[in-house]
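Lab notebook, bench 4. The sequencing result for the construct came back, and we need a structural model before the next group meeting so we can plan mutations. Quick request posted to the team channel:

Model the 3D structure of this chain.
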Amino acid sequence: MKKSNKKSFGLIAVLSLVIAAVCSLTSCSDDLDVQQSYPFTVEVMPYADKITQGQTVELRFEIKPEGNYTNTLYTIRYFQYDGEGTLKLVDGPVLVNNDRVLLESKTFRLNYTAKSADAHKFLVVVEDNFGSTPWEQTFEFNGKDKGDDNGGTIIGPVVGPVTPVIR
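Done. Here's the predicted structure in token form:
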């Protein structure tokens, strides 16, 4: 009886190993499913909405992806359709209208310098290298006079003679 128990135990062990091997080999797939493209948003810090000719406004950005893949690259481009000015990456190149520039960091700053006294309007687009939905935002700056201080009182020089009041 002991021999038959050993045989049945050995048979069960061998069958278990065969079943485990068959299951593990048939469930293998050469396709490793690694997600590379994650949706992202871009946060923009508050900025001034009025600008004078020759004035520079700093725009601060931070890319916030929903996941993290180390080989993700981001590019930026812009299109100006109102006013005249230059947009420059701080510590980087001046952007050319509709040309892509590689961003070296997820946090970056742009300087917009007005070249005219008109209103300014341009679209900034950030894209990743996987073709996911790009982030877009329009920036608008109203032209202002050099003396405009957003509604404050401007004290100008006194013109004409000053007559003292004696009491």
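The first strand starts at residue 40 and ends at 44.
Will bring this to the meeting.
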